[in-house]
Amino acid sequence: MSILVTRPHPDNEATADNLRARGHAVLLAPVLKFEPVAFHDESEAGYGAIIVTSANAIRAVAPQLRDLGLVELPVFVVGEHTAAVARETGFTNVIVAGGDAASLRDKVMQSAREKLLEAKSTLLYLAGADLSRDLGGELGAEGFSVVTQTTYRMAPVKILPREVCDGFAAQGIEAVLHYSRRSARAFLDAARDEGVEISALAIPQCCLSENVAAVLREAGASQVLVAATPDENALFDTLERALRTRLA
Fold first, then answer.
1. Is the bond leading into 74 cis (omega within 30 degrees of zero)?
2. 175 Cβ contact list (under 8 Å, min separation 6)
3. pLDDT digit string (tens) for 14-42?
């Protein structure tokens, strides 16, 4: 029996390694494909800091960030995974939020209150093409000037690997891990197109957040579990709980 990981490459490989270290067999079906977007920073504003909600936003433009000296700025990142990529890129002042965009917004505002960041300063938001919330608008309402730069997009992958379809048909997949609303929707679309939607939704769907889980519930999944906190270790704990329940 295998765990299906829908996370895009290259992060899916690290997830698979962690699952295998816990004794699980793994199947990979990256349902979104990473595509960088050309980065041209034409703003003449002096940025006080950078904000990032995805490691991919940094990966897409890492060379330009170094060439433009932007790695010298403080960077507010959504969680520990993105923080690791920021440090690899050359950022030294990395401020880590609690795993979602709301906690990132709050971390920026807290830093301003504590005078670690100049109030109402200009922030560079490195973002994906599809945003789940208007973080720039929320910080703008608090007096910050936010320059949003799209650095990447995630394109849906419309087919599932044959071994994954065969796994659903043979009831050889125990659970599915979901990391974002977009990937959950892409997974559902691909499963529907491949004719395995019923089998796919009949097993536990382990989700990084309630926001992600809503997509699976709306599609009719009967076993939707949500991580206690929006990080991978908590998601793995949720997976183990789901598997124990199935065996009980």
1. no
2. 3, 4, 203, 204, 205, 206, 239, 242, 243
3. 999 999 999 999 999 999 999 999 888 76
What the block records as the tokens of 26 is 């793994």
- Say what the pLDDT of residue 44 is: 66
Single-letter amino acid, residue 187: F
Per-residue model confidence (pLDDT) at position 174: 96
Give the model's pLDDT for residue 131.
82
pTM of the full structure:
0.80
What is the layout of strands, in order, in the sheet containing 25-28? 25-28, 2-5, 173-178, 205-207, 224-226
- Reference 131, options 52, 245, 197, 239; nearest CA is 52
Instruction: Name which of 60, 31, 49 is nearest 179 in CA terms.
Output: 31
Torsion sign, CA atoms 208, 214, 220, 223: positive
**Phi, psi angle pair for 76, to nearest 5°:** -95, 120
What's the CA angle centered on 54, arms 113 and 25, to 5 degrees? 130
- Max CA distance (Å), the chain: 61
Amino acid at 11: D
Per-residue confidence (pLDDT) for residue 200, from 0 to 100:
96
- Strands of the sheet with 47-52, listed across from one edge: 32-36, 145-156, 122-128, 47-52, 75-77, 94-96
Q: Round to whole Å and give the CA distance between 200 and 101.
A: 29
Parts of the chain with a pLDDT under 50: none
Query: Distance (Å, rounded) from C-alpha 95 to C-alpha 5?
Result: 28
Return the pLDDT at 197.
Answer: 95
Query: How many helices and strands in the chain, by DSSP H and E?
Result: 11, 11
The residues near 218 (Cβ < 8 Å, ≥ 6 apart) are none
